[in-house]
Amino acid sequence: MGIFDGLPVSQEKDQYIREELAKIDENWAASRFDSLPHVVHILTSKDREGEIQILRDQCDVVEDVVDEVVQSYHSGFNKAIQNYSQILRLFSESTESIAVLKGDLVEAKKHLGSRNKQLHQLWYRSVTLRHIISLLDQIENIAKVPGRIQSLIEEKQFYSAVQLYVQSTLMLEREGLQTVGALQDVRSELTKLRGVLFYKVLEDLHAHLYNNGEYSSSGCINDKDEEIPTTTAVALSNSSQPVSRRTRLLKSESHSTSQGLAGGSFRSASIDGGSSYDGQEDEGHEDEGQVNGVDGVKIVSKQIPIWLSKATPDEFLETIKKSDAPLHVKYFQTLVECLCVLGKVAAAGAMICQRLRPTIHDIIVSKVKSHAAQVNSSSPSIGQPGQIFATGLQLLKRHPESYQLSKQKRENAILAGTLLAVSPVTPVMAPTGKAQSAAKNLLDSILDTIVRVFENHVILGELLELKSSNHTEINTPKSMPTDANWNPDSEGSQVTGGYSVSFSLTVLQSECQQLLCEILRATPEAATADASVQTARLASKTPSKDKRQAYIVYKIIYWLTLDGSEDGLSFAFRFTDSTLSVPNQGSDIVRQGWSKRNSNVSQEGYGSASVLPDQGIYLTASVYRPVLQFTDKVTSMLPQKYSHLGNDGLLSFVDNFVKDHFLQTMFVDYRKGVQQAISSPAAFRPRAHATATYTPSIEKGRPVLQGLLAIDFLAREVIGWALAMPKFAGEIVKYVQTFLERTYERCRTSYMEAVLEKQSYMLIGRHDIEKLLRLDPSSASLPDSQDGSFMENNTVDAKVDGIELELSDILLSLRPIKQDNLIRDDNKLILLASLSDSLEYVADSIERLGQTAGSSSNQVEEEVRTRRRHIRTGSALTRDLASFADEYRKLAVDCLKVLRVEMQLETIFHLQEMNNREYTDDQDAEEPDDFIISLTSQITRRDEEIAPFVAAVKRNYIFGGISSIAATASIKALSDIKSINLFGVQQICRNSIALEQALAAIPSINTDSVQQRLDHVRTYYELLNMPFEALLAFISEHGQLFTFNEYSNLLKVQVPGREIPFDAQDRMSEILSALP
């Protein structure tokens, strides 16, 4: 800002002055101005008049500016001068008045000094009267306290009522009011109201503890912490015990609320309900205005909860206002603070302990009844015994994919009944049955409720322990006798009346264990071993039962009668039969809910039989997962000091029950089912009414043997139990392996009964034949084949011919084939075909089961590793089951190999009649030979019989070796034929054509390969009709078509009308040797 800003100076003058000021030398602005140099400068200047004129102009401008400023501020200057003059006058008058006042005060002092004693007496009388009036006001207000407390109790303003009670009690203890006889009735009423208030608080705490209260966590909409609480270690001011996340916010308030509140000292407050600071009532009304009804739930201001709207401000109220704890936790804090102020923490803890078990029992019963009502309203109960089997059949009809049965076929319906007969459980009790789902849903619902209840018990237990650590004498005076041998770890539970987080957890798990025993239809003795172990462990930490019981009884009686005989309370406590007797003191109705006998609670059931079947031990699978989740949730809630209790209760019981009872029962039952399945006369009997063609789908009628189908069903069912309980999957899979091993032995026995002492069975066991069969391209169709490249190659190359020729030579060397060495019973061949397909089906199923069990075990492996327990890995389980699948496939392949070799031996058996025979017919053959007719009819019949039991590609394998062995046998038979004419050649060609037609009628066979091989036979025999020279010409052109021996046999056989030179062999050898 400039020096002329705000002054009444024109813009032109302002600009001019600024420019002139800029031209002034620094000497003019010096603090001590020296005018002599300027005077000398003007005098020595050539234009002295001009210099003087410049100064005059500058002076005129400055004077004009000064005149303008003075004119503008003249009136203001005058007014200021006048005000200053008036102030001086007032000061002068005040000085004179003060001097007069001093004189008057001196005079008054002289007059008052002469009457000092009389004034002192009057002042003392006025003070006494004020005190009397104050006492009368207090008496009047105290007389209204009982009614106000009753009103606050009805409004559930418990903390306000407790404050008013404590303040009134302290007021009655004052020296001036102790002797007032009119207040004796008030004292008596307050004593009764203390009991009423205690039971009202306890009743509300009990409802809130089990989520039935107005501010419970289950109904609190604005509860920001809906997750399961986790344990967080927080160092308290007076205790090093860690607390959970629910109560870690109590650290700041633990010390402030404990000072004075237990002793009844509060900050400034009045009996008549007045507030110690302004705005309290208005703020309370604001909070009441913020309460909105949403489905019966109150949304309360974060600053002051509605139940504290009428409370007198104190440290606890300030702590609640600043706390970020959820609403239901704040309500817990309020109720616990009320009990602490009333000095009833131990009594409340004892009564909560008394009511814990029956309340949990009632909750479970109500859940079961609710579930039963829901089930009955939606569908008939699955627990009704008369409907179990019918329901299972309905499931089979409605869901064929569950049991892989067809609902259209009568035979499959019979199989369904067979499966139900061999299974130890009904369909509804199967691992995926409705009973398992119902049990799991029921237990999930119950345990979820128990978890929420235990969450509240953790909060309450930590609050009580927090109070007990800060108020070691709130319940027990210093004169209270103590036991020197008492365990110091239980000192906190003594202060809280025996109540603690561990006690509540023990009771909750005990009730849940009783529920599980009822669901599983197990006697409580099922957990005797586990209970004895826990008892022994606890016995090492606690005194004897009698001593502990007597001590607790004495403590509880003392706690309940601690405040004087006016309460008239008596308390008898027993661990199995708890009774609370309270004389009529005006609060009988309040105490009525706490005086019920509960001796028959442990004997009463939960009613689970109305919704669950009687075959309860198999419900273990549906019980295991909810119990595991329940244990994890409970463990995450427990404070650090109780973390060791997480896995010692319910989960341990279930683990022991599974190991000691369920697994043994399941093994025995399923072993009986397996034995029944494989020992039945129809177990390995092929179906009598199979479909016309093979179908790979069970639903469409795949003719798997009844015994193996039952075994597969049982194996999948047992694996279902393993999936339901992954921790025990290793042991359960071992059972499956045992069953599969026993079944394999039975299959092997059935296989041996069909092939014993048969030549085909002995041949496939030879190393050379087994090697050739493995190298044969057709073996690519076998179940254990690793290479299927030959399946796409329909051309018979030299390598294939070499393998087939070598195998044919070995088989032909066995001639003559005896009929006794062949499997002449077609039923055995059908059994081998059906057994092969059934074994392959079971092998595929085993592989799928191994993958399923392996994936399940891998999922639980990490969880089990964190629990530091050992199980077999999923890869090991998969390998074990895969080895059984390989064994089953190997036996299935052996069945197919036997069938293939058997058909080749049958072909050799029929064709060996060509040997040592003369084909010199005198007329053209119209029909093939009888042995060819027998062979073709046998091929056709066996193909029709085997077709429903094996796939097309395996039919090709079984009958595909006939053409090669027939061609080789027919060509080699020429060496044994004595003579043959033209009609004989036609007869042999007719035989090959009939055989080709029979083989071509098989849909799955490679007709091109059959035709090529048998054309080769016809070409060979038609060479007999050629003259010798024509035969030599053919050999020169097609020398590699046949071998040297085969060409030699053409020359050796006698053909009527054909001349063979004496050097025919030499000339043929010369031609063959000249070929490349």
From TrEMBL:
Polar residues: bias regions: 234-244
Region described as Disordered: spans on this chain: 234-292
Keywords for the protein's UniProt record, in alphabetical order: Exocytosis, Protein transport, Transport
GO biological process: Golgi to plasma membrane transport; protein targeting to membrane; protein transport; vesicle docking involved in exocytosis; vesicle tethering involved in exocytosis
Location of the Exocyst complex component Sec8 N-terminal domain: 17-151
A GO-annotated cellular component: exocyst
Alphabetical list of Pfam families matching this protein: Sec8_N
InterPro entries: Sec8/EXOC4 (IPR039682), Sec8_exocyst_N (IPR007191)
Superkingdom per UniProt: Eukaryota
Function: Component of the exocyst complex involved in the docking of exocytic vesicles with fusion sites on the plasma membrane.
Family: Belongs to the SEC8 family.
Xref: PANTHER family: EXOCYST COMPLEX COMPONENT 4
Protein name: Exocyst complex component Sec8
Species of origin: Trapa natans (Water chestnut)
